[in-house]
Design goal:
The structure is a single chain. The chain contains six helices and three strands, in the order αααβααββα. By secondary structure, it is α+β, with helices and mostly antiparallel strands. It starts with 9 loop residues before the first helix and ends with a helix. The N terminus is likely disordered.
Length: 111
């Protein structure tokens, strides 16, 4: 939880996030900010919202996006490296899905 609640003013919430929980709270805020930066790219956001309904392989993703496979693969790599996606090998195919947790909550909230 990033905010103390609706009864606290913004000043209280900011002071709380910096002083109230110390390093733990700052780390949580930084993790959410990084996640939002990763999802802030239009291609990665489209991938994430598409994967909100289930998993898909690289070919399915780049065909749906109408983009070159290399471009989509680079975005998938960034998302996987930052813990946004899970990858599962099925023979020669790699299927991607959203990791459970904050990323799924954010994508659902945006949909």
């Amino acid at each position: 939880m990033l905010w103390m609640g609706s009864s606290a003013g913004i000043g209280t919430a900011i002071r709380w996030s910096v002083k109230g929980k110390g390093v733990t709270m700052n780390r949580e805020v930084e993790e959410v900010a990084l996640l939002l930066r990763i999802l802030g790219h239009p291609v990665r956001l489209r991938i994430a919202t598409g994967l909100a309904t289930g998993c898909a392989c690289v070919k399915e993703i780049w065909e749906c996006l109408g983009m070159p496979q290399a471009v989509v693969s680079q975005h998938l790599k960034v998302m996987k490296e930052h813990g946004v996606l899970d990858a599962r090998r099925e023979g020669v195919r790699v299927c991607y899905s959203l990791k459970e947790g904050p990323v799924t909550e954010i994508v659902k909230a945006l949909s």
